[in-house]
Every structure is written in structure tokens, then in C-alpha cells.
Amino acid sequence: MPASVTRGYTFGSTELVTHTKLHSLVDSATITGIDQSNLAASIGTVTRSASAPSDTDALWLDTTTMVLKLYNGTEWVPAGPYALLTNKSGSQRVAGDVVIVDVSTAGSFTTTTSANNQLVAGVVMETIANNADGVIALPGARVTTLSVTATTAIGDYLTTSTTAAAAIPSATPGKGVFAIALASRSGVGTITEALLIRFDSGSTAATQAEMEAASSTSAMVTPGRVQYHPGVAKAWCNFDGSGTPTMRTTHNMDSSITDHATGEYTVSFTTDFSSANYVLAGWAAISGSMAVVTATTTVAIAAGTVRVGATTTANTSVDATTITLVAFGDQA
Amino acid sequence: MSKLTRVGVWEHPDTSVSITHFDSRDIRSGETEDVFIQRHTDRLKLDPNFANATLSIILASDIPVDRSQRVDWSIKSGKVVVDSIKTAVRQAAKDAATNKKTALLGKLKIDEADFQTLKEALK
Asked: Less crowded by CB within 10 Å, the N or C end of chain B?
């Protein structure tokens, strides 16, 4: 049905035409009764339907997946964070399946039973037969169906699991995370809301063993494990050995000090070394003079404690006002 | 003040005495003072320096304020005191050494200054 145009000014049959009347004719005109068919053929509209519209100039909101699609001259393809990929998994896939890039076939996806797989393509948005094309939600998309293998909480990080097409939740981020759960569920099944993200590039936090080996050039150092690197001091302290020995500041050392005799003390580590084969360095001072940190007459070093002495440069034991110690080695 | 009112006193087989000054900063969350003292002294017992030493937990006020004679400290009736016997024995040993040295210098017919010169030359 055509639209109706109502003129803004009506001339009489002998009426003089002026620029004012012409302006009024245009400026006051109204158009009514515009419907979709009036526009579809020329500028395109948005068609909301479960099936593709015949007008290939239109945008199509597929009400089955709620994905906006456009016609690329050959087929309807998703707009936004979605892709049309071919199912090469060997069987039909359904909405909510987690799929990875099929590296053996261009433009296709498959499934995996490898946990923390880093080739996640996205989440299937509709039923897709094997070898058929279908819509896959990509990072940035919100999905309303996603298969999980275990009880999931809102905010859990999701990675691929050893179950094909299903994700496993975790409260902590890590390798292969591709989505964050926005809905919870108890047990195996599907969650009703998740946000797909591009979170993990494959770098993982170095383990204690990797830190101690000091050879990896890809694992990331984290604050909680940096102390395991052999080049890092495991403990240090600064204490006053005069009067009642008093710890000023420490890292991984106790503040309690045992006073054996003039210039002889035992200090202890909060976390022990793995053996007594660690390295100790120190520096000491007394008011207005230099002192030296030494092993004491009773040379003894244990994994969790060490006895140290302070002497003058003339090798006389002295209660130094400042004694500092630094320890390197392998921790338990 | 972060020091506890109690200290650990270790009596070693050679009669020497060590004092552990406990610091409240080492007490873990939820840990009582007694549990902390037990934990800390248990770790010290693993150190060869404390092997066969006898531990007593006493008040810090029961150790002498003057630490200059620590070498002569002993535990008497639950308190740390300067042990006059230790002092006497140590002084006697010191006197004996001095006498021996003086006698030796006399035999060599040199004085202390000559001895020090000789000592330096022999280094």
C-alpha cells in the first residue's frame, strides 16, 4: 500500500506563485501511511523472522538465534561477533556446544576432548548438521545456552573439558579460558547465560618447579612464586643486637631472636630452606665503627635457623647495633 | 612493645646460657602465646646449637638487666643470676693464663711490647 502525501499549501487556479507559498507547500507537507513495503525495495529494512526474507537488501533478525544477519551476495551471514563456519565434528551439533577451530579444513570447526584447549572457536548457536554451515558465537557475544560438565557458579571461568563440546567451570582463571558464566546451575547440563571472552593467550603462571629450574622463557612469574627462583633472596632481616636483641624489619624471618652471648645470635626463617646448604651474607655496624658478621665459634647452620656472630674488625665479639642478613637457596 | 613478657632460657651442657626473646609479631592468627612459644622453641631444638640444651620458660623480668656478665649466667630457682662460681672459675683461668704468659716472657727475657713486636713479625 502506497504512502499518502498531504500538500502543505494548495494553490488556486489563477493564484500567483510566490517563494513564500512554495516554501509553505514543502515545509508544511506531511507523509502518512508508510509501511515496510514502501522502503524495502530501495533502502532495506530489518526483517524479524525465523526464516530468511526474500528481500536481500534487508537486515534479518533471525528470531531462532536472535542473531542479526545480512546477505553477502551468496548467503545470509551473521553480523557482529558471530561467524558462519562448517561443522566438521563428524556429527550434528546443537546450540550450546563448545567447538574449536578445525585446523585441517579451512573455515570449519570441530570438537575436542582436550582440557584447556586454546583453539576455541566459540559456541554453537543453532542445530548444525555434520558438514553443514551454521552460526558460531565468537568472543564478545553473549550466549544463552552453553554445555558444562559440572556445577557452575556465576563468575566461573570456562575452559574446554575432556567431554566433547562441553566446558568445565573453575573459580580461578587459567589457560584456555574462553567464557565467563553469567548464570549458575547444579551438575552437568547447560547454563542459560555466558559471556564469551578472549582472555587467555596461553601464557601460564610458572610453577614452583619452573621457578626453581629457572629455564622457561614462556611461563609468567607471579608474586606468589617469585621467591622460588634461585636468584631471588629467600629471606632477609635487619636487627639491633645491642641490649635486648630486637628485629627491625624482616622478610620470611621471625622477629624472635635468641641471644647466646656478646655478639652471638640465632635467628629463624618463617619458611625453612630445603636443607642447610644455603647461602648467607651479612653486614654489621656498631655506633661510629664498622663490624663484621661472622660464623660463630659454634658453627651451626640448620634448614630453619642460623647462628651468626658480630665482631669488631679486631675480631672481638660485639653487640652490633645493626646486623643485616640475606639468605639465598632452595626453599622447602 | 612487641616482646613477650616471657623468655626462653636454654642451659647448654657446657653450662653456658642462651636467651630467646619471643616477639609477638611472630604469633600467627588464632595462635595463643603458649602455642607460639612451643612452636618456636620446637624449631630451635632442630638446630645443633640447641642440642641437649635444657629449656625453661621464665619471666623476662627474671633475667639480669645488666648483660655484661652473660658469660657467667646460670639458672637458680627459676631465675637467671650471675653465677659467682662461674665468675670465679673464669677469673682463675684468666689469671692462670696471665701468670703463664708472664712467666714465659720472663724466661725469654722480653717484655709485653717486645712480645707484641715478635708476634707481628711472625704473622
From this structure: C
